[in-house]
Amino acid sequence: MTGRGYNPVVYSDSLTAADRSSLVSLCRCWGQSPEVREEHLEAYAILTGMGPTYFWFQWPELERLGREFGLRQSEALQAVAAMLHGALDALFHSGLPAEQVLDLIPVYPLKNDEEAIRHIFRDRLVALYQKLKAATR
């Protein structure tokens, strides 16, 4: 939808360079389509194919809370979008280790829930990864 996806691909050895080039051109509209090793496709499916669904439901909820707190919808949407862009830049482009980025904000209202959330990620995503890997064997 936005041309900013991350869609790893594996090409058959029987494809010609011209065929690969054509496929790369077709995939470009979706965003990045790096060629990866076939044995890693399931990992990419968990991280990038399904990854947005782990977070999407949270962002509209923040926007709704902003409206409940008195912001107009446009203000709440702008605030959440700016926060997300800034948070991603801080985590991935600040040069700081993740642990230091996590300590940048002194108020941490969901701190006590982090371990439960990590447990959900590990339980469900590791099981799904193993199921995908087993299906491809």
Written description of the protein model:
This protein has 137 residues and is an all-alpha fold. It has 6 helices and 2 strands, in the order βαβααααα. It has helices spanning 17-27, 41-49, 58-68, 73-93, 98-102, 114-135; strands at residues 5-6, 31-32. The model has no long low-confidence stretch (mean pLDDT 94).
- Report strand order across the widest sheet: 1-2
> SSE order in H/E notation?
EHEHHHHH
Helix content: 55-70%
Structural class by helix and strand composition: mainly alpha
Number of extended strands: 2
Roughly what fraction of the amino acids lie in strands?
under 5%
Mean pLDDT comes to: 94
Shape estimate: globular
Task: Reconstruct the topology from this structure.
Layout: E1 5-6, H1 17-27, E2 31-32, H2 41-49, H3 58-68, H4 73-93, H5 98-102, H6 114-135
Parallel strand pairs: 1-2
Helix pairs in contact: 3-4
Task: Provide a compact summary of the structure.
The chain has helices at 17-27, 41-49, 58-68, 73-93, 98-102, 114-135; strands at 5-6, 31-32.
Task: Please name the defining characteristics of this protein.
mainly alpha, two-stranded parallel sheet, 6 helices, 2 strands, globular, 137 residues
